[in-house]
Amino acid sequence: MYYPWQQTQWRQLWRAKKEQRLPHALLFSGIAGTGKAEFAAHFARALLCQAVDENGMYCNICHMCRLTESGAHADFLWVQPEKESSAIKIDQIREVSEFIHQTGLQSHYRIVVIHPANQMNANAANALLKTLEEPPASALLILISHQLSQLPPTVVSRCQHILFPQPNQKDALQWLEKQDGLQSVNKELVLNLANGAPLAAKRLVSEGLLGIRETLFQLLYSLSQKESDPIQSAISLHTEDTLMLMDFMLSWVMDLMRLQVGAESIINHDYHAQLSDLSKRTELQRNVKLMENLIALRKQISEGFNLNKQLTWEAVFIRWAECATCF
Ligand SMILES: [Zn+2]
Question: Which of 37, 111, 243, 252 has CA atoms 20 to 30 A from the CA of 98?
Fold first, then answer.
C-alpha cells in the first residue's frame, strides 16, 4: 500500500511507467517513518503484476502477485542490513549486481530495492556505482534514503530523485486516528515526538517506546535533583536503542532552551512542569553545549560508529548532571 500523503509521488511515477519513461534508478528520500519502503514495495508489486489496473492497483490474485507476496518472485530482490543498525555490506551489493545481470525474465522488470541505502558502507556504495553506470535494459533499482548526505554524490547523481516530504499534520493525524491501539493516546504529542512522521509515531506507541522515554526523563530529572548517580543511571539504559534515546534527550534539551528564550510552544508538553522547573535551574550556554555534544554523538552512531553504550551514557549523564546542578 501507499499512504494518502504520497499521492503526488504515486501519480508522478505511475504516469512515467505508463509513458515508458521510467529511469533505471530511483532515489526515494525524506525523513524516516513516512512510509517510503511501503511505497517502494507497492510500486514494485504494481510493476510485476499481470493484471494491474490503470491506476497501478495490483490484483493480488495472479501468479506474479502470489510470488511477490511470498517473497519468491525471481525478478524482485529486497536488500536491507542484516541487523537494523548495521551496515549494508559489499557482499550484499555484489549479489545485487549478479541478480541484475541474470538472463531470463519472468516479467518486464528486474527490480531491486535497497533500504536504507544510506546504510551502505563505502565499499558497498562503490560497488553499487558500477551497477548504476551500466544497468541492463530491464533493471530498476530503488534506493531509499532517510539521510541523503550519507550517500556519495556519485550515487545520488545517477538516480532520479523523488522527494517524500513530511506529510501535513492534518493528513498524518487523520491516519493516526484510524490506527488500532492509539485510541487513548495523545496523537498530536506522539506525532510531534516523531518529527511529524506518522509511521514512526505509531511505532512509538505500538513498540512501547513511550515507556522507555518516560524512564529516560525520570532519570534525567532525578539526576538534576542529585537523587541518582550518572553511572548507575547509564547501566539501566545500556540495552536500549541509543539513537532513539539520543533523539528523546535532544528533544528534551531543545525544549529546555526554548523555554529559556521565552518560547511558548514546546514538543514535550506532557513534561511541561519539569522542563519549566529545569529551565530556571540550568544555564542556556551549558544546554547549548550539551545539545552540540548530543548532535555529534548522534551523527557518529548514525554513521555506524560502534560506541560503547555504557561509556557513552555515563559521559552524557555526567555532562547533564553538571548542567543541571551548577546553580
Ligand atoms: Zn497481480
Answer: 37
